[in-house]
Amino acid sequence: MLKTLVLAAGRGTRLKSNTAKILHKVFDKPILAWVLDGLADLDQDEIAVVCGHQADDVKDFLHAYPVTTVDQEIQMGTGHAVMCAAHLFEDFEGSVLVVNGDSPLIRPDTLNDFVNYHRQSESQLSLLTSNLEDPTGYGRIVKRNNSIIGIKEHKDCSEAEKTIKEVNVGVYCFEWQFIKEGLGKLKSNNAQEEFYLTDLVEWAYCQGLSINNYLLADPNEALGVNTREDLALVYKLKNKHSLEQLMINGVTIVDPESTWISPDADIGPDTTIFPGTYIQRRVSIGSNCSIGPHTVINGPVEIGSNTIVTQSQVARSSIGDNCNIGPYAHIRDGSDIRSFARVGCYVEVKNSNIGDGSAAAHLSYIGDAEIKSNVNIGAGTITANFNAFTGEKSQTVICNNASTGANSVLVAPVTVEEGASVAAGSVVTKDIPEKMLGIARPRQEIKRLPGARV
Ligand code: UD1
Ligand code: MG
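Above: the input record for the complex with uridine-diphosphate-N-acetylglucosamine. Below: its predicted structure, written as C-alpha cells.
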C-alpha cells in the first residue's frame, strides 16, 4: 500500500512573485502539474497535496486532478506540512511517498524505481539523493561509516559540511507506522526557525531504524525551483530532453539552441523544425512536415503530415495533411484547416473551418466562417462576424467551389452558395445563390475630366 503526499504550500519567497511558486509555468504547464504527471503512473491508493500559500489558486488548479487537498494555513516548514496531513494516514499501515512540489524534473521511471528500491531494501526510511557539482542551497546527506545519520540544511551546515556534494532531492519514502512518532518530535531551533522534514532522518537514525538512499543517475533531476534562475534552468533542461527525444525519433532540429519544444509534443519522423520555433502544450505533428523558422504553436494543436508552416502562429486548432500555412499567418482558437488548404500571408483565421483544397492566400480575416472545399478567398476578403450594436457574432458560409473577389466584405450572417462568386470590392449583406455572381458595389462611372479635350 502506498500513499503519496506532495508538499506545495510554501511561499516561494525567493521568486519574488505574486503567483504561488508551484503555479509558475514551464512550457505553459505549472511546476506542480509536471510533478503530478510524474506521479500518475505509480501504483498508489491516494495522492494528497498540501496547500497553504495562495491555497485558493492552487486548489482551483487541482480541480482537474484526482487528488485530496490538505491545508497548511501557516507555513512552518516541510516537517510541519507533513504533520498537517497526518490525519490522512491515521491507521495506515503502508508506505508514504513524500515529494516536494517544486521539483519538476524527476522522471516517472525514477519515482517508480525509487519506490521499488524502498520496498526491496526493506528500509523504514528511504531518501532520493544526488551528487551535485554545486550543492549550494540543498540539504546535505551526512554519513558516518557509510551510514546516513542525518540531513543538514545548507543554512545550518558547518564549513566542512558544506563541502558534502551528496544532497537531499526532497523525495522520501517511509513506513508510516515507524515514522509517525518522529514527526511530533521535530523542533524549529534552526537557521530558518522551521520544522524541517529532513530532521526526521536524524531521529530515525537515533531510533535505530533502517535508512537507505537511492542515488539519481542524472543529477539534473534533482533541481528544485527556488529562484527565477532555477526556473530558467528547468525550462532549458526540459527542452534539451525533449529535443533529444525528438531527434532520436527521427525529427530534424536544425538548431537546438534556438528551438523550444515541450516534452508534451509528439512529432513524426522526417519532419524538420527550423530555428526560432516555439511549441508548447499538447501538440501533435505528423511526418514530413516543415515547421518554422520563427513559428509559435500553442497546443492543443494537431497538424497532419506533409504540411508546411512558415513564420506563423497557430493556437488550439487543427491543420490537415499537405497544407501550406504562412508566412505570417495567424490561426487562432477553434480553427480547422483541412487537407491541401492554403492560408497565406497576413491571413488571420479564428473559429473557422477551411475545407479541403481551399485557399485564403493573402491579407484576409476569416472569423466564425464555414469555408467548404475548393473555395478561393480573394486577397483582402473580410468576414465581418461581429455586430458592434448587439455584441453578437454570426457565421459566414462559403460553399464548395465558390470564390470571393479581392477586397470583399461578407457581412454575417450570410451564405455564398455553391459555385457562386463575389465581385471584387463588394460589401455582401444578402445570400448569393448557387453559381450566381454577387456584385455589391457602386457602379463605375466614366466622366470627362474638366478641361480635358476629346
Ligand atoms: C528542501 C529540503 C532540502 C532539499 C531541497 C530539495 C527541507 C527542510 N529542505 O529545501 O533538504 O535539498 O528541498 O529541493 O525540507 N513547503 C510546504 N510548506 C512549508 C514549506 C515548504 O508545503 O511550510 C513545500 C514547498 O511548497 C516546496 C517544498 O515544500 O514545494 C520544499 O520547500 P522549499 O522551501 O522549496 O525547501 P528547500 O529550501 O528547497
Ligand atoms: Mg525548494
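Notes for the reader.
The longest helix spans residues 228-248.
The chain has a mean pLDDT of 97.
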